[in-house]
Amino acid sequence: MAFLGYLLLPVLSLLALTNARVGVASHKQSTSIRSIPNSAFDVGERLVFDINYGFVTAGTAVMVIPGFKYLNGRKAYEINTYAASTPTFDNIFKVRDKYSTFVDVEGIFPHRFEQHVHEGNYNKDYDAYFDQDELTAESNDGTKCKIPKYVNDILSAFYYVRTLDLTQYHKGDKISLENFYDGKTHPLDVLILGRQRIEVEAGVFDCIVVEPMVVEGGLFKNEGSIKLWLTNDANKMPVKVSTKVVVGSIDVTLTKYQGLKNPVTARVANED
């Protein structure tokens, strides 16, 4: 993959993937579905990020929850993630990527994954449909395979982690999940690294730092660890992502936010 597109992908591992056949809401009702309390996010949330390579802004990304859809007879959050190279980088390598996920409102698990990648001359469109009754995942290429119950894609895993009470975890603790992508299920552990106060364009925030141990997921391959800073409050809003690449590192930093479910109590007031 070309270098610039490679730079843009880490934010997407934080952000995207899932759905269920668009425009064809099944009337089948799933049984024995778990219920996960969610006080972290809701419709209307919109987060904007800069993707920085050193002192250069190579692209921007947006995470947004525009509304609800009904899939497999159940209410789901529609969650979209967009990433694009800046106009300057468009002249070198143009990137326009979109990932979508539809996450069950009650159970916080994916019904469908949708990926649309347009990077230079490379294009990929991929869908995976999850059936929690039959425990199968079917891709748009006709591949069908068995899945564990409540398997995640990389984005639904991120939103699931946001529903957890991270204050009960200590440095070194690990949250173990399973991640489905491209016809296979892979382990996805999230390691708790501790607490840290950081400053980005959107403000100064007290954060919980975690490390997603991504083995596979189709989104990127990293040369080192990936670190993610989440606000240490009820929102668990992503503030920063940092990952090593072949040369240097990429920092994805929050520039704007709106429509949060709770007050941002982790934001530190400016000291005059």
How would you explain this protein's 3D organization?
The protein has one domain. It has three helices and 14 strands.
Outline:
The chain is mostly beta strands. It has three helices and 14 strands. It has helices at residues 3-15, 87-90, 154-163, and strands spanning 46-53, 56-71, 74-85, 96-104, 110-119, 122-131, 136-139, 144-146, 174-181, 184-200, 203-214, 226-231, 238-244, 249-258.
Shape: globular
> Helix coverage percent of residues?
under 10%
| Element order: H for helix, E for strand | HEEEHEEEEEHEEEEEE
Task: Report the biggest beta sheet as strand number plus sense, adding barrel if it closes.
Answer: 14 strands, antiparallel
Gyration radius, rounded: 18 Å
Annotation field: number of helices:
3
Annotate the secondary structure layout.
Layout: H1 3-15, E1 46-53, E2 56-71, E3 74-85, H2 87-90, E4 96-104, E5 110-119, E6 122-131, E7 136-139, E8 144-146, H3 154-163, E9 174-181, E10 184-200, E11 203-214, E12 226-231, E13 238-244, E14 249-258
Antiparallel strand pairs: 1-2, 1-14, 2-3, 3-4, 4-5, 5-6, 6-7, 7-8, 9-10, 10-11, 11-12, 12-13, 13-14
